[in-house]
# Entry
Amino acid sequence: MNKTKLLIAAGAATLLAACGTQSTSRDQIRAVGSSTVYPFAKAISDSLAKSNAEIKSPIIESTGTGAGMKLFCAGVGVQHPDIVNASRRMKKSEFEDCQKNGVKDIIEVQVGLDGIAFGEAKSGPGIPLTLVDVYKALAANPFGKPNTAKNWSDVNPALPAIPILVYGPPSTSGTRDALKKKTLTS
# Structure
């Protein structure tokens, strides 16, 4: 079996894993969550429906990981999603919300890992960033001191005196959570 088919099989298994815990009056699986995972989940959903005419294509919604967790943990039944696609692990507070709202049979299936990329234009200065440079640039309080860095040279004198610009996903994104966790704990 090639890697693509294996990924599709793993994804289909993930989509089907929650079916037994919800009411059977809905005829489609509903997944919400990560905008990063969305294109992959949608491709798996479409492949599953094409492979078996008796299966309706699962409903896949891009809500962001945080918003998806909130919807998933709100309760059990056809009005709630069966699956949350996430680009990070469930937080303790989200797990507690799930438990409080009767969402007890939670199964985590890791299909892949999230990634964060740093890029610059081909004509850029070729900034050789280290994890420490990124931490100093992005953490609110690097090494316990308030962050005052405005330019890359503020975090490392060997870097150019150009502004630190960060573009990223919204606060509901698990990818953003992963970057935030990495810059705060490294």
Remarks:
- The domain at 3-100 is CATH 3.40.190.10 (D-Maltodextrin-Binding Protein; domain 2).
